[in-house]
From TrEMBL:
It is an enzyme of class 3 (hydrolase). Has 3 domains, the large (RuvB-L) and small ATPase (RuvB-S) domains and the C-terminal head (RuvB-H) domain. The head domain binds DNA, while the ATPase domains jointly bind ATP, ADP or are empty depending on the state of the subunit in the translocation cycle. During a single DNA translocation step the structure of each domain remains the same, but their relative positions change. The gene is ruvB. ATP binds at residues 38-39, 80, 83-85, 146-148, 189, 199, 236. It catalyses: ATP + H2O = ADP + phosphate + H(+). The keyword Hydrolase applies. SUPFAM superfamilies: P-loop containing nucleoside triphosphate hydrolases, Winged helix' DNA-binding domain. It is found in: Cytoplasm. The RuvA-RuvB-RuvC complex processes Holliday junction (HJ) DNA during genetic recombination and DNA repair, while the RuvA-RuvB complex plays an important role in the rescue of blocked DNA replication forks via replication fork reversal (RFR). RuvA specifically binds to HJ cruciform DNA, conferring on it an open structure. The RuvB hexamer acts as an ATP-dependent pump, pulling dsDNA into and through the RuvAB complex. RuvB forms 2 homohexamers on either side of HJ DNA bound by 1 or 2 RuvA tetramers; 4 subunits per hexamer contact DNA at a time. Its main location: cytoplasm. Belongs to the RuvB family. This is Holliday junction branch migration complex subunit RuvB.
């Protein structure tokens, strides 16, 4: 087993493939529509991310006091933690319009120039997945962020000329799930950088209660806690699980959600008490039952569960690693002692001895 098979895959997984799962952090069409109604409208209403909220509040209040455009903002963190929502709040707090686009949509410098040249003074430009923007557009963005100017190239070859185009002051809000892929010159041009953390269960309970109120769903404290505990630290997943539990409660109960109803509904949707779904458990079961806990190569593990290599690596593994159920090693993927316990299995003697050396257990 060589490192190439266990190293991280740099390609992006399509949002469509991820959004098929109930616990996927990506948003699909239905999520986008519902999130628009559930999104908080100001920083006071926004739940969680206390440090980022406090720091951002200072940045925005200072900008308003000076009568100036807010500094450029970079938000990093996993999908579903509120980066898009915060960008909309920034625009609302600055009483400015917002333009939303994404890095993959900007493949040429001309694409970016067209967007920048149409911005109004003070407008907020939200650029999602900014690390996936093309290099020529990225280099144009440097000058736009720093000097509010871009050079538009007219013509080709020796006769090409650069025409400077002045831009009105604007605020760029960049969002990324992979901050390490941003080049330093781009990162350094942001006046404020905030890292979004996964939510604690108590914070997610507040999210669930708030969303239930907006959806006119009756839910008690235990029911909210049950949903929050299976939401993988992500508000978007908590809202999605809430909607599916609401459906179950309306069809098979009296419409009110308590712990028993929430647990029964999530059992139907194959989301267990730690938030693992069918794919997560399939990966763990293959690793434990077929390969004795590993180590096993990523490609071999993907074949065993009948999924693409990228699906296992980018959809299932991050959560399993974060939960301490799986480890990536130079020799391959290895199940931790907690994985055996979670599935109610006893590790074979040779696996236990091998894991003692890997985990010190």
């Amino acid at each position: 087993m060589n490192w190439d098979e266990t190293g991280p895959h740099t390609g992006g997984l399509s949002d469509e493939r991820s959004a098929d799962r109930l616990v996927a952090a990506g948003a699909d069409g239905e999520d986008t529509a519902v999130e628009a109604a559930l999104r908080p409208k100001d920083l006071e209403e926004f739940v969680g991310q206390e440090k980022v909220r406090a720091q951002l509040d200072l940045v925005l209040k200072a900008a308003r006091a000076r009568g100036a455009t807010a500094d450029h903002v970079l938000l990093s963190g996993a999908p579903g933690l509120g980066k898009t929502t915060l960008s909309m709040i920034i625009a609302a707090e600055m009483n400015a319009p917002i333009r939303i686009t994404s890095g993959p949509a900007i493949q040429h410098a001309g694409d970016l120039a067209a967007i920048l040249s149409s911005l109004q003074e003070g407008e907020v430009l939200f650029l999602d997945e900014i690390h996936r923007m093309s290099r020529p557009a990225e280099e144009m963005l440097y000058m736009a962020m720093e000097d509010f100017r871009v050079d538009v190239i007219v013509g080709k070859g020796p006769g090409a000329t650069a025409i400077p185009l002045e831009l009105p002051p604007f605020t760029l809000v960049g969002a990324t799930t992979r901050a390490g892929l941003l080049p330093p010159p781009l990162r350094d041009r942001f006046g404020f950088t905030g890292h979004m953390e996964f939510y604690a269960p108590r914070e997610l309970e507040r999210v669930v209660h708030r969303s239930a109120g907006l959806l006119d769903v009756a839910i008690d404290t235990d029911g909210a806690a049950e949903i929050a505990g299976r939401s993988r630290g992500t508000p978007r997943i908590a809202n999605r699980l809430l909607r599916r539990v609401r459906d179950y409660a309306q069809v098979r109960a009296d419409g009110r959600i308590d712990r028993e109803i929430a647990a029964a509904a999530l059992k139907v949707y194959e989301v267990d008490e730690r938030g693992l779904d069918r794919l997560d458990r399939a990966v763990l079961e293959a690793l434990l039952k077929l390969f004795g806990g590993g180590p096993v190569g990523l490609s071999t593990l993907a074949v065993a569960v009948g999924e693409e290599r990228e699906t296992v690596e980018e959809v299932a593994e991050p959560f399993l690693v974060r939960e301490g159920l799986l480890a990536r090693t130079p020799r391959g993927r290895v199940a931790t002692p907690a994985a055996w316990g979670h599935l109610g299995l006893v590790p074979p003697q040779h696996a236990a001895k091998g894991q003692q050396g890997l985990f010190g257990a």
